[in-house]
């Protein structure tokens, strides 16, 4: 059936958050379900895209979601130990600098969209996208995310589908979509990991000290006292 019209475009509710408007438009465009193909590792995605290339479906619009560890090509950020934070800081322009690769994203996504439309498209893997990104001086990380909008098949590691925080940050909507999980017997471990969190004893002690200050200064005691008790019992 026809897609519903985006309520944002009617102008009745001017939403302050432009990303919300964007999300809404994306949702409305998704009439045909996408296939989300989850794998255990990034390496397996490379194998699967190689197999896809050999089939009659090689021209189907696709994308691969992966972390900046695999797709950042900024000379400084890519060599940093905390790529995510550095990338966000650059994009916010805090130091008066920005990322020229990010501003070239459209060159990369348009190249793939054109190839797909003329059916000269070939299934690709992360390495292909990165080398093309270097050629166009365009960011593969954000290009892959942009390509998700028009993609029929989206490859990604399991945790992108299972972890609600990653799903949210990646703008992945699984309602009414097709989800395929490769080697699904690994899902239990992955699900367990996505809801687990590791803390060190020194982090717990630091948290307790901060909570002591809060409680002693009568700052939201009702909230902070139970938290302090949890820290104490864990220590």
Number of helices: 12
In round numbers, the mean pLDDT is 84
**In the CATH scheme, what's the topology name of the largest domain?**
Rossmann fold
Give the CA-CA distance, first to last residue. 58 Å
Q: Are there runs of 5+ residues with pLDDT below 50, and where?
A: 1-16
The number of domains is: 2
Structural class: alpha/beta
Radius of gyration: 22 Å
Strand content: 5-15%
Reading the helices and strands in chain order gives: HEHEHHHHHEHHEHHH
CATH class of the largest domain: Alpha Beta
Work out the number of β strands. Answer: 4
Task: Please describe what this structure looks like.
This protein is an alpha/beta fold and 235 residues long. It folds into 2 domains: 161 residues, P-loop containing nucleotide triphosphate hydrolases (Rossmann fold); 34 residues, no CATH class. It is built from 12 helices and 4 strands; from the N terminus they run αβαβαααααβααβααα. Strands 2-3-1-4 form a 4-stranded parallel sheet. Helix 5 packs across helix 7. This is FANCJ protein. Keywords: ATP-binding, Hydrolase, Nucleotide-binding. Pfam families: DEAD_2. One of its GO terms (biological process) is nucleotide-excision repair.
């Amino acid at each position: 059936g026809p897609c519903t019209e985006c309520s944002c475009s009617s102008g009745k509710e001017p939403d302050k958050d432009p990303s919300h408007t964007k999300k809404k438009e994306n949702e409305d465009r998704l009439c045909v379900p996408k296939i989300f193909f989850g794998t255990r590792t990034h390496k397996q995605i490379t194998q699967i895209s190689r197999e896809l290339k050999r089939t009659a479906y090689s021209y189907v619009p696709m994308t691969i979601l992966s972390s900046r560890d695999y797709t950042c090509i900024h000379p400084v950020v890519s060599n940093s130990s905390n790529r995510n934070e550095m990338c966000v800081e650059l994009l916010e322009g805090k130091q008066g600098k920005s990322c020229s690769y990010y501003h070239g994203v459209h060159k990369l996504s348009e190249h793939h969209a054109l190839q797909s439309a003329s059916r000269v498209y070939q299934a690709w893997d992360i390495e292909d996208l990165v080398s093309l990104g270097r050629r166009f001086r365009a960011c593969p990380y954000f290009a892959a995310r942009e390509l998700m909008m028009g993609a029929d098949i989206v490859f990604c590691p399991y945790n992108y589908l299972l972890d609600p925080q990653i799903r949210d940050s990646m703008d992945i909507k699984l309602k009414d979509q097709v989800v395929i999980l490769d080697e699904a017997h690994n899902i239990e471990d992955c699900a367990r990991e996505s809801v687990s969190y590791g803390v060190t004893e020194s982090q717990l002690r630091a948290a307790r000290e901060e909570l002591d200050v809060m409680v002693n200064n009568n700052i939201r005691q009702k909230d902070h006292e139970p938290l302090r008790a949890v820290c104490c019992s864990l220590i």
